[in-house]
Amino acid sequence: MESIDRSFLLSTAHVQERILESSPLWTARTDNNNNVLTIARSFIARNFQAALDCINAMGAIAEEANHHPDFHLTNYRHVEVVIYTHKLNGITENDLALARAIDERVKIDYSAKWLGEHPEASHTAK
Prior knowledge:
Largest sheet: 4 strands, antiparallel
Number of helices: 4
Strand order of the largest sheet: 1-2-4-3
Order of helices and strands: HEEHEEHH
Helix content: 25-40%
Shape: globular
Distance between the termini: 35 Å
């Protein structure tokens, strides 16, 4: 496995441009607690089981890639996925690739109301 160093980090502008191009469901943001650039995606699943199912499917992809995002499940069906390279405290190509793989491979059983308000996510819906 190739060792990575800070030279692999992408600039905020580059990350924002790439997200707009290929992963529009994700947003780039700086974590206020530790000033780390991350990419994140949030949604509301149909129910608790649907939320768990999508987290498990995303986790399987992360495990294959040996690249592990932070998963947050609140209010029993509100899901947030936060990706960044923990070792470097920032975004690398691996993070963008994981976001794309999740979008391409995981079909989510969204809340009907949430999906109606976010039609851009319909290509990732069950």
